[in-house]
């Protein structure tokens, strides 16, 4: 990793060896730019880049590229998310060129949740290519300067390529190999699924380190503070691939009325503290779902401020 | 029926060249009718493979069997006693049969000998064409019995598009424009007023997009 691949702030922070801290922001269910700007504002200066989700959970929202563009205008660096569910290879490639043209420098490549769980379950899905192939495609466009078909690109998009990894989905033993495949395909950085089962994550990251994956790619540990006991039980039971230990639910319950959210933040802070010293972890990806305004407080208490200027 | 095409012999050889006891299993249903995987095609493939292995100087046993169907357990059971003798199976059934065979005998490597293409008809011997994509919500009643999902290259529900020329599709002059056919048929049936209605957006959750499908009929289930 000698030269900068994209020149994004996130890339520079990671390359300089800082412990990265990224945030997340879901675009509005409408064209409400003011609402979006309100959600972006508290993140400024608190994180190195902000993931902009792409019709997350298959619910229609403002397009991730448009919201990313607004984020750029607001002076916050976006990490543009793209899912394979809604676009074929033509749209994928043209959107990649489009976001780069608009100044976007980070891109997270995802398969996308199946539309059955969203608000248009009658829709077709595309999946012309999958997330692994999307990673390789962005890399090809950037490093070889060609489209999927081999034709030359007039000004190739130079993007910092991200991918997701869920250490907790089954089969557990194969998860680290799938991570290795994503790195092999071209991922520069990884953001993991929300981590609650720390013991299992320690095992996962140890295997990744044993395989030398952390030397080929930056791995950011996913953290989502629990806001309520209801959220914890919902995540434990309803969200596929999520591992929420009973001990955490009990701990939140034990916090007592009105103090659960604070207990959730406390747990997240303990996690971040451990991640800072965990071999193989290059940073934290904080997914404070519809809690963007609490990010400054969490960042402050986590001791990750001020964010490095590189 | 399901239309399939024989895989090139080179591809089949590549899959099985390291095995010494090969069983080729044909299917007496669709793939027999479309001449891709019936008893005759099993025999042709067997002799091609025998010739290949002989030229390679490799002593290889190649046997043949054709089942009534490979998509029903009872017919797959017919080879249970003899399958133990082989170290690989080539199925000439459609993808459904190959999978059910592999599922039934999970210890044996099973390779496909055909490419499964589509659900279609025999226009004439040697010519088969697509008619249905199994979308799970049949609209043939409103399209004069001609399916735009399987026969329009864009799957338009309110065609024809601007690429329709002299009754042919823009992607190939050998392909009829499904919507030209639909309009002609509706005209013939004196139902052109139906064409004026805008077909609503389709619910695709019953087709492939909605995930692998299953039909459960409690009234006939045992």
Q: What does this molecule look like?
A:
The complex is a heterodimer of chains A (310) and B (222). With 310 residues, chain A is of the alpha/beta class. Chain A has 11 helices and 8 strands. In chain A, helix 6 crosses helix 7 and helix 9 (246-254) packs across helix 10. The longest helix of chain A is centred in the C-terminal third of the chain and has 18 residues, at 260-277. By secondary structure, chain B is an alpha/beta fold. Helix content of chain B is 30%, strand content 23%. Chain B contains 9 helices and 9 strands. Chain B has helices spanning 9-16, 30-33, 39-55, 73-76, 80-83, 95-104, 148-151, 178-188, 192-195; strands spanning 2-6, 21-27, 61-67, 88-91, 110-112, 114-124, 127-132, 168-169, 172-176. A 4-stranded parallel β-sheet of chain B has the order 3-2-4-5, sandwiched between helices. In chain B, strands 1-6-7 form a 3-stranded antiparallel β-sheet. A two-stranded antiparallel ribbon of chain B has the order 8-9. The model of chain B has no long low-confidence stretch (mean pLDDT 96). Chain A binds chain B through residues 114-116, 121-125, and chain B through 201-205, 207, 209-211.
Descriptors:
heterodimer; A: 310 residues; alpha/beta; TIM Barrel; eight-stranded parallel β-barrel; 11 helices; 8 strands; B: 222 residues; Rossmann fold; four-stranded parallel sheet; three-stranded antiparallel sheet; 9 strands; 23% strand
Task: Summarize, please.
The complex is a heterodimer of chains A (310) and B (222). Chain A contains eleven helices and eight strands.
| CATH homologous superfamily identity of the largest domain in chain B | Response regulator
Radius of gyration of chain A, in Å, reads: 19 Å
CATH class of chain A: Alpha Beta
User: Any idea of the CATH class of the largest domain in chain B?
Assistant: Alpha Beta
- CATH topology heading of chain A: TIM Barrel
Number of strands of chain B: 9
Count of domain modules of chain B:
2
| Distance between the amino and carboxyl termini of chain A | 16 Å
- Strand percentage of chain B lies at 15-25%
Strands of the widest sheet of chain B, in order across it, are 3-2-4-5
What's the overall average pLDDT of chain B, rounded?
A: 96
Helices and strands of chain A, in order, run as: HEHEHEHEHEHEHEHHHEH
In the predicted model, the low-confidence regions of chain A spanning at least 5 consecutive residues are none
The description of the largest β-sheet of chain B is: 4 strands, parallel
- Tell me, briefly, the overall form of chain B: elongated
Task: Return the CATH topology of the largest domain in chain B.
Answer: Rossmann fold
Q: Biggest sheet of chain A, open or closed, and with what strands and sense?
A: 8 strands, parallel, barrel
What oligomeric arrangement do these chains adopt? heterodimer
Largest interface: A-B, 8 and 9 residues
């Amino acid at each position: 990793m000698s030269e900068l691949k994209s020149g994004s702030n996130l890339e520079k922070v990671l390359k300089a060896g800082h412990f990265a801290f990224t945030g997340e922001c879901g675009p509005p269910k409408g064209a409400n730019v003011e609402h979006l700007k309100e959600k972006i504002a508290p993140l400024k200066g608190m994180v190195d880049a902000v993931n902009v989700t792409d019709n997350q959970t298959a619910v229609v929202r403002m397009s991730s590229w448009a919201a990313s563009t607004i984020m750029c205008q607001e002076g916050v660096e976006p990490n543009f998310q793209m899912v394979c569910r809604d676009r074929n290879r033509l749209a994928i490639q043209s959107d990649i060129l489009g976001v780069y043209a608009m100044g976007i420098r980070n891109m997270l490549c995802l398969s996308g949740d199946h539309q059955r769980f969203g608000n248009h379950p009658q829709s077709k899905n595309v999946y012309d290519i999958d997330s692994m192939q999307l990673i390789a495609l962005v890399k090809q466009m950037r490093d070889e300067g060609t489209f999927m078909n081999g034709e030359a690109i007039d000004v190739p998009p130079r993007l910092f390529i991200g991918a997701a990894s869920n250490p907790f989905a089954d089969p557990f033993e194969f998860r680290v190999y799938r991570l290795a495949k994503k790195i092999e395909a071209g991922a520069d950085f990884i953001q993991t699924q929300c981590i609650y089962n720390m013991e299992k994550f320690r095992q996962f990251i140890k295997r990744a380190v044993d395989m030398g994956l952390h030397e080929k790619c930056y791995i950011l540990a996913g953290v989502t503070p629990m806001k309520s006991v209801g959220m914890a039980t919902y995540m434990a039971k309803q969200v596929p691939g999520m591992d929420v230990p009973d001990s955490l639910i009990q701990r939140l319950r034990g916090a007592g009325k009105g103090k659960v959210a604070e207990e959730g933040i406390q747990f997240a802070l303990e996690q971040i503290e451990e991640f800072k010293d965990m071999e193989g972890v290059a940073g934290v990806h904080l997914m404070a779902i519809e809690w963007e305004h609490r990010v400054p407080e969490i960042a402050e208490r986590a001791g990750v401020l001020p964010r490095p200027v590189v | 029926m399901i239309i399939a095409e024989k895989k090139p012999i080179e591809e089949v050889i590549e899959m099985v060249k390291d095995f010494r006891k090969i069983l080729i299993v044909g299917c007496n249903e669709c793939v027999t009718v479309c001449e891709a995987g019936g008893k005759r095609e099993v025999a042709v493939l067997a002799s091609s493979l025998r010739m290949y292995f002989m030229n390679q100087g490799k002593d290889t046993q190649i046997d043949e069997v054709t089942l009534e169907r490979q998509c029903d357990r009872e017919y797959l059971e017919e080879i249970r006693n003899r399958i133990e003798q082989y170290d690989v199976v080539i199925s000439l059934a459609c993808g459904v049969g190959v999978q059910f065979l592999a599922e039934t005998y999970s210890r044996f490597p099973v390779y496909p000998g055909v490419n499964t293409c589509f659900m279609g008809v025999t226009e004439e011997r040697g010519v088969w064409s697509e008619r249905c994509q199994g979308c799970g919500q049949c609209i043939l009643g409103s399209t004069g019995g001609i399916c735009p999902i399987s026969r329009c290259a864009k799957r338009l529900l309110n065609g024809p598009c601007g690429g329709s020329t002299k009754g042919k599709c823009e992607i190939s002059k050998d392909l009829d424009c499904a919507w030209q056919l639909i309009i002609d048929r509706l005209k013939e049936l004196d139902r052109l007023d139906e064409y004026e209605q805008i077909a609503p957006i389709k619910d695709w959750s019953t087709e492939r997009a909605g995930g692998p499908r299953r039909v459960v009929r409690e009234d006939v289930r045992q």
